[in-house]
Structures are given as structure tokens and as C-alpha cells.
């Protein structure tokens, strides 16, 4: 089933047609700064996906050397999605950008070592101190 996520102003959109691979939350300091929140909630989808609108990109290197290309709206600033270099077969989309309260919850939590103590994980969530191996 295709799903569409958009930025706050609607200029940038991504339609994902591939299978939902999983939903996770990241508590790393880079994601906290990027989102302005205590964590980032991301949904990973298999290709194909289609982007409409204009995006600005920001390339960040993770703790283990992976390079992530974040795309955000140059008008409203919403970080909508990102891809990992060398992993072109999937895309990670900000869960909130789907504007769907019924969207599936996270099953994985990464960088739990940086999780704010008041953030309570949903029951059954698998937590990793940093990135999983």
C-alpha cells in the first residue's frame, strides 16, 4: 500500500511503495539536535519510492563510519527522509511526516545510552546501547 509523507508546508513529499521494513527510534545526540526532540522516530521502507518537490541535503557521518544523506525542505525546514550511502535499496522516513496516528509503533530503539530517562519505550521494544551490529 503506498504511503505519502510530507514536510510541514507540503512542498516536499515522498511516496513509498515498498514494504515497511521496520520502525525504530534513535536517541543519539545527532538525531536529538537534528529533530529538536529527545529522539527521532523513523520508518524504513524498501524501494521503490518517489520524491516530489525540492530538497536540501545534509551529509552526516555516523559513529561507525556510515554516511547518511538527510533531505529537508528548504522552505519550512522539515527533515523528511534520509538514505545511507551504499544502501540504495531502502529509505528512512520521519514517522511524524505521515501525519497518521495509527502508524505502527517502534520495535527497535538505538543509542539507548543517550535516551532521556523520562522517555519510556513501548513494551516489547528491543533496545541497543548504540547501533546494532
UniProtKB/TrEMBL annotation:
Superkingdom assignment: Bacteria
InterPro entries (alphabetical): CENP-V/GFA, Mss4-like_sf
Classification via Gene3D superfamilies: glutathione-dependent formaldehyde- activating enzyme (gfa)
UniProt entry tagged with the keyword Phosphoprotein: no
Keyword Metal-binding: yes
Entry keywords, A to Z: Lyase, Metal-binding, Zinc
GO molecular function terms attached to this record: carbon-sulfur lyase activity; metal ion binding
SUPFAM superfamilies in the cross-refs: Mss4-like
Domain CENP-V/GFA intervals: 3-112
PANTHER family to which the protein is assigned, alphabetical: CENP-V_GFA DOMAIN-CONTAINING PROTEIN-RELATED, GFA DOMAIN-CONTAINING PROTEIN
Similarity annotation: Belongs to the Gfa family.
UniProt name for this protein: Aldehyde-activating protein
Organism: Dyella jiangningensis
